[in-house]
Specification:
The protein has about 120 residues and is an alpha/beta fold. β4 and β5 form a beta hairpin. The longest helix is centred in the N-terminal third of the chain and has 16 residues.
C-alpha cells in the first residue's frame, strides 16, 4: 500500500479507526525528510495492513501546530485511536521495522488502563 496524504479534514477519521497508523510529518525542503521518505514508502509496501500517512507541515501548518510538531521529520504511531509513539528524527529501515513490531505487540487493553491510571493520578 502506498502512503496517503493527510489533511486537517482527513486526519481525525484516519487516526480514530482501528488498527495501526504511522504518520510522517515532513516538508519538501527538509533533507532528513527526503532521505526518510523511501524508507517509509518501502515499509508501506511491506505492511499493507498498516496505514502509512504523511502530513506536509508546510501545507498543513494548523495540523502540525495542533500536534506540537517542532522538529521534522517526526514520526507518530497511533494504534486503535491511541497515540503510542511520537518522536522526531528519521529512522533507518531496521529501526522502523522494530517500531512496527512493537506497535503490533502492544496489549491495547493494558495501554488504556495505564492511560486511565495516569489521568486519575494527575
Amino acid at each position: 500500500m502506498a502512503t496517503t496524504e493527510l489533511t486537517n479534514e482527513t486526519f481525525g477519521p484516519a487516526v480514530q479507526a482501528d488498527g495501526i497508523v504511522l504518520i510522517d510529518f515532513w516538508a519538501a525542503w527538509c533533507g532528513p525528510c527526503r532521505s526518510f521518505a523511501p524508507v517509509f514508502e518501502a515499509a508501506s509496501e511491506k505492511h499493507p495492513d498498516i496505514v502509512f500517512a504523511k502530513v506536509d507541515t508546510e501545507a498543513e501548518a494548523e495540523l502540525s501546530s495542533a500536534h506540537r510538531i517542532t522538529s521534522i521529520p517526526t514520526l507518530m504511531v497511533i494504534r486503535d485511536g491511541v497515540l503510542v509513539y511520537k518522536q522526531p528524527g528519521a529512522l533507518p529501515a531496521p529501526q522502523l521495522e522494530q517500531l512496527i513490531t512493537k506497535a503490533r505487540e502492544l496489549d491495547m487493553d493494558d495501554v488504556r488502563r495505564q492511560i486511565a491510571a495516569a489521568e486519575t493520578a494527575a
